[in-house]
Amino acid sequence: MKSRRAKQPGFGRLHGHGLLAAVAxxxxxxxxxxxxxxxxxxxxxxxxxxxxxxxSGADVxxxxxxGMTALHWAAEHGNAELAEMLLYAGANVGAxxxxxxxxxxxxxxxxxxxxxxxxxxxxGADVEAATSTGHVTPLHFGAASGRVDVVVALxxxxxxxxxxxxxxxxxxxxxxAASGRVEVIKTLLAAGADASTTSTVVDIPEVxxxxxxxxxxxxxxxxxxxxxxxxxxxxxxTPAEVQAAVEAANAARSRVATEDIAVTVxxxxxxxxxxxxxxxxxxxxxxxxxxxxxxxxxRQGGLAPLHYAVREGRAAAALVLxxxxxxxDQRSAGDLTSPMLMAVVNGHFDLALDxxxxxxxxxxxxxxxxxxxxxxxxxxxxxxARYPQQQxxxxxxxxxxxxxxxxxxxxxxxxxxxxxxxxxxxxxxxQLDVDTRGSTPFWRAAYALDLPAMRMLVAxxxxxxxxxxxxxxxxxGRGGGDPADPSGLPPVPIDGPDVYPIHAATGHxxxxxxxxxxxxxxxxxxxxxxxxxxxxHGADVxxRDANGFAPLHWAASRGDNEVxxxxxxxxxxxxxxxxxxxxxxxxxxxxxxxxxPFPETIALLESLGSKNNNNCVSC
Length: 619
Hints:
The chain contains 28 helices and two strands.
């Protein structure tokens, strides 16, 4: 769901100038580069030199080291005169490059050279020729180029309007939609292109299961070859043994991927490509919630042309697709993302409003339960992450509040809850240490300290006291059993209440992760947001999350004396202890690495009765 730029295959050439390029070519092909004077002259668009060479009997089809012939260069440059000359001299229209199998027609279509495209077609070029990298056809390239004359020429010559390339299953209409080629979209639709076709779906849990199975089998095969070699002794498998392990791993991966089996690696595994039982379970089981990365991402792809247009913010292309019959509410075949949700997630707020005006349903959730209303807040307040977050919302006329208002007026549910944590919120849990499953738009607004959004949501019926849901812990292999719980609180079951908006608004997870370097929120709004929750909605200042942390713990972890004093004035107990044994003073005392202690806060909490266990990790 998160924006990923359309990966339309491009043509990468080895050809270059100078000694370095020559050496690289010789290294790759194991020979001195072939002499191709006609191609060299065509590369420079030296028509006179090409003519002279051809008259002297030079080979018109001699290719450079990367397979580029003179006709390839004429197609690349769009030089119709040169192309006609070469074709007259017998140039091979079916010649392909060494890397990718690009024919001259691919290059001419990609560069949008309609006259050269027609010349090549007239000379017998195959309009269905496919590259070896993705099986991309000239029509795909022509659609992306935006040149209607190229597309028309290819279609008239018999190109399949709905043929999908194999890397991602994209059709020419998807290429055109992603590139915003409005006139090409109209041409393709008029030629019968299917606007409902979806691209390939990648099932991430299945891929992860197959990879794990392959790894297990590979290791077992190598262990069998190693035999009784003592640990620590030098041992290196032979090439044949490595090959056997690779073949066994590939066989296991194929079985898991194609037969949908759960396999188990036995302890007495032998170096046999049919090594049998690999036990790999993955994906969610009925009634269970998994917060593994693979299960959170779930399935990717399955996008229709309209998804490609809205993902890239191509408003005109999106509207033309709708006029041509595209379903405004078609959800992706991968994670069930609707076009409007796709637009909001990628920050295209103006386009989202256009879709809403066209009748898009604002309540269609993704597989994670994400609706456009929640996404508007999450997109605007996206955390700082190790990967760049989208910034398109900064170039919109509409604000996130405008989008929220319009959706609420159109009947958006203000209490819709996420059914999964959003993996793309900051690309897993690397900094925030927050699981948003069960959160509502109001919770997300509270986490961002966005008072205008909170007030707006309440005005349309939002419940300000819905918490997130407790999820299984991500232990990453840590053992040792469960530690004693000194909090005195009853246990909270999986799916039970976890983090309330009052926790979110006081700094949830600031003292357990590194939210301080990632969390984005309204400036100078900690105390106003807390006061709003307490004074206008009766939030419990002693509410405990599933881990036993109270609002005071989180305020302490930020060194926020102002909020601490306010909470205590409202009856907060400074002596509470979390399930992990953290006092409020402990949370102000560098409880994790890279979080510095707050001496004034420690002193304040100690004066209020909190015990300081002097467990500073960062000191």
